[in-house]
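Data availability (excerpt). The following record was deposited with the supplementary files.
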Amino acid sequence: MTKISIVICTYNRELYLPKCFEHLEKQNCSSKDFEIVIINNNSTDSTEKISQEFIKRNPDLNIIYAFEGKPGLSHARNKGIELANGNIIAFIDDDGFAVPEYVSIVKEFVEKMEYKDYIAFGGKVLPCYNPGKEPMWLSKYIDGLVSKVDLGDKVIPFLKKYPAGCNMVFRKEFFEIYGGFNADLHTRGDDKFVFEKLKRAKLKTLYIPQLEVSHFIDDYRLEKDFIVKLSKVIGQSEKIRLADSNIWLKFLKLVEYIMKFSASLIIAFGFLLKSQTSKAEYLILVRWNVLLAFIKKGKDLVPR
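Predicted structure:
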């Protein structure tokens, strides 16, 4: 029997957590099909109160609440895996809003014989913003900064790309065999670490377009200083992830980043010809800072 554990790792998100919970309350399936695992990652706001009110309001839902004192998303995710009772584990961010069919769609696809060889699943992630805040500088080349995932409307395997952390699903056996998330990595580095393990084991990930989550992006995450910092963290996480790899893999990653930066100069020129100055500026800004952070020593502060 399929049971889905939806893990919500949360840190000081009292503004958006109620809406996240509201979407889980409205799932159009039996409460027996899923449980909700809430991991409070050392929050200092009203997260615990909001969570306890949610539990009290929904006695028919299977809800687990736990506190994880070690700061960092990977610590919280690993705690969620430890406590999950389901044989399927889905991760949704505390500012992620799942469609009402989310659990039903996961259940349908994990049970289909044609997809029995797929160990992980992911779907669309559509960023949403405060009114008037959708960034003019965003382009498809750097939309990972807002966790956007949209590979179209057909069910296909993830090949070069992988699901975003705010909408990813695994068969629990994967973690039992290969272990959990790397607490030394941050931002999307911990996601990539897990999916790289999956790829090395020659396991497959499926893209399900109707498995949709809207992901709220705070205003501060769109500010230039934050984008620079986030870009540096991406480069640093890759350096940490490859720390124990052979020099050849590190060299290939360096070449990849140099090529992406070089390509960004060409693409940016095309944006300038279309008078899309901000798209050109931010594309170069991101690619340069990712490359710079991968090369240089030391660490910057990690965005949370």
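Summary of structural features: DSSP finds nine helices and nine strands in the chain.
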